[in-house]
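Researcher: I'd like a candidate sequence for this fold, 208 residues long. If you have to choose between options at a position, lean toward the conservative one.
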């Protein structure tokens, strides 16, 4: 694991509770989960929540479709502990989300909320390629990212400490990468949820 990446997991672990409080019930995120529900395959679908964090997406999905079979994966122990309390009907495992190729299961839906900001361009490319190997054709990938010029990616500090390297992506680049990995864009949205000046992008892509 490179330095930037190890730091990202460490910082998310340290601020897990704060993160969960900040984003629980956030209107832009809730709207995006609802859009995902509209597109998901029928009841009982198998879903992988990639870099699930405190399990907010899993909790929302299960609240609305309790029959979903959800597994969440993340590397932060504290995020996973919170996820288990927020979404007790889901299963959570400690796993490196850059190693999707190790997974043997196949899924009807992949949820990937704000993992891309911690992946460099070539890592996004292989992540999306691997994701296509574990999603059934016709399945939906939910992918969110922070919008911006890749060249402006850099360290963002939290309250002046604990800098976190954050990668920005343009809508066009992510669309290109999704298409190249074997997805068709079903829908996308732009939001400005965090209030930090940077906007967020939400993609709903179908595996073709
Ligand atoms: C911004 S949070 C997103 C959490 C959640 N998906 C959401 O949308 O609220 C990023 C998460 O990615 C996790 N993470 C970062 N790199 C990871 C890796 N290589 N494998 C697994 N989890 C990772 C962090 O621990 C953190 O929980």
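Model: Candidate sequence:
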């Amino acid at each position: 694991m490179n330095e930037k990446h190890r730091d990202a997991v460490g910082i998310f672990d340290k601020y897990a509770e704060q993160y969960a409080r900040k984003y629980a019930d956030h209107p832009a995120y809730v709207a995006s989960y609802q859009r995902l529900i509209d597109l998901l395959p029928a009841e009982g679908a198998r879903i992988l929540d990639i870099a699930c964090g405190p399990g907010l997406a899993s909790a929302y999905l299960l609240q609305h479709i309790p029959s979903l079979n959800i597994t969440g994966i993340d590397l932060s122990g504290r995020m996973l502990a919170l996820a288990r309390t927020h979404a007790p009907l889901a299963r959570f495992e400690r796993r490196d989300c850059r190693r999707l190729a190790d997974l043997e299961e196949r899924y009807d839906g992949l949820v990937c909320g704000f993992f891309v900001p911690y992946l460099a361009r070539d890592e996004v490319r292989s992540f999306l390629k691997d994701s296509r190997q574990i999603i059934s054709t016709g399945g939906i990938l939910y992918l969110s990212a922070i919008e911006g010029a890749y060249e402006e990616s850099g360290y963002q500090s939290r309250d002046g400490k604990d800098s976190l390297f954050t990668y920005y992506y343009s809508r066009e680049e992510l669309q290109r990468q999704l298409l190249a990995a074997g997805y068709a864009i079903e829908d996308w949205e732009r939001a400005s949820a965090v209030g930090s000046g940077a906007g967020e992008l939400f993609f709903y892509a179908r595996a073709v």
